[in-house]
Amino acid sequence: MDLPDTRPKRQIMLGYQHEYHAGNHADVLKHAVLALLIDALQRKPAPLRVLDTHAGSGAYDLGSSEAQRGREHSAGIARLLAAGPAPAELARYVAVVEAANSSGTLVRYPGSPALARALLRPDDQLELFELHPRAFAALESLFRGERRVHMHRRDGLEGLRAVVPPLERRGIALIDPSYETRDDFARVIETVTAAQRRWSNGIYAVWYPLIRKPEAAAFVRRLRGLALPRAYQVEIELASPGAPGLRGSGLVVANLPFGVDARLEALLPWLHRCLAQDGAGRWRAEWLRRE
Predict the structure, then answer these.
(1) In terms of C-beta density within 10 A (0-12 exposed, 13-18 middle, 19 or more buried), how is residue 240 classed?
(2) Cys-Cys with 19: which of 65, 66, 207, 245 at CB 3.0–4.6 Å?
(3) In the chain, where the domains are located
(4) Long-range contact set of residues 178-183: C-beta below 8 Å, sequence gap at least 24
């Protein structure tokens, strides 16, 4: 189902394809945190809704030419699975990845839509936004007939502001654009601020890349400075600040559920040791605002 969009049309860049990056170290951090947030909300029986602003294709063939070009999963999910028994904080995330690879060989990676769908209970709902036509077609194919999955071919930042608060009033909004343009950074700040005013108790998980661009560093400073309730930051850096490319990533989570901070503080050191080359970089798990 598509929501009608009455906003003035703006130029959207559609060049980014997550197939090239599926299962990389940024996906591992992002999806491990998402699984912990879903798990925390499911401690209560009331239904919840997961909203994904940039759903992508939903799941990824790691044998495709796109995934094989950079083989980014080899330094991400493949390294995690090869590290031996994962800590309890990763149990649900790893279980979904292993279920997608029942042969025991890593050939498929569940993106955030497939991960969330696997973790949903019968009354929980999943709301997906994706603008790229090929990615949206893949979503439709993956979730055809799924009554709990609601798909919109629409810009996710605009769409999120249009649909909150959800009927359930409980849920998580994962906000993870590609940040291909400077406009993305400003629009995320605007979207989080506006959506939080409308849905004050929603959990907002805002992912960001660690890249060598001044606007990226400025964005993290602005994000940390927002007056978001119970704001918590996690970050894994796998190379020095001057390194080219994606040297790491992080998330700022608003309305972090009680108890998840302790789980993240236990998880981040292990995850950094697993993903880092020769112990390079650093990790962070800290409160920005407890109220």
Answers:
(1) exposed
(2) 66
(3) 18-289
(4) 178/16, 178/18, 178/54, 179/208, 179/209, 179/211, 179/216, 179/219, 180/13, 180/15, 180/16, 181/13, 182/215
Answer for the pair 224, 288: CB distance below 8 angstroms, yes or no.
yes
Helix (H, G, I), strand (E, B), or coil: what is residue 288?
Answer: strand
233 secondary structure, DSSP code: E
Listed in sequence order, the residues at least 6 apart from 227 whose beta carbon sits closer than 8 Å to its beta carbon are 289
CA distance 284 to 255: 18
Separation CA 153–CA 130 (nearest Å): 5
Q: What is each CA distance from 291 to 94, 184, 288, in whole angstroms? A: 32, 28, 9
The answer to whether 176 is a known catalytic residue is yes
Collect all residues with Cβ–Cβ distance below 8 Å to 40 and sequence separation of at least 6.
Answer: 257, 258, 259, 260
Model pTM greater than 0.85? Answer: yes
pLDDT of 15 reads 61
Residue 131: half-sphere exposure toward Cβ, Cα within 13 Å: 19
Q: What is the CATH number of domain 18-289?
A: 3.40.50.150
Structure tokens at 161: 């502001």
From the list 39, 124, 155, 176, the catalytic residue is 176
Helix axes 182-198, 156-163, angle to 10 degrees: 10
pLDDT value of residue 277: 73
Question: pLDDT tens-digit profile of 126-150?
Answer: 999 999 999 999 999 999 999 999 9
User: What local confidence, expressed as pLDDT, does residue 278 receive?
Assistant: 80
Please state, as a whole number, how many other Cβ atoms lie within 10 Å of the Cβ of residue 199.
Answer: 21
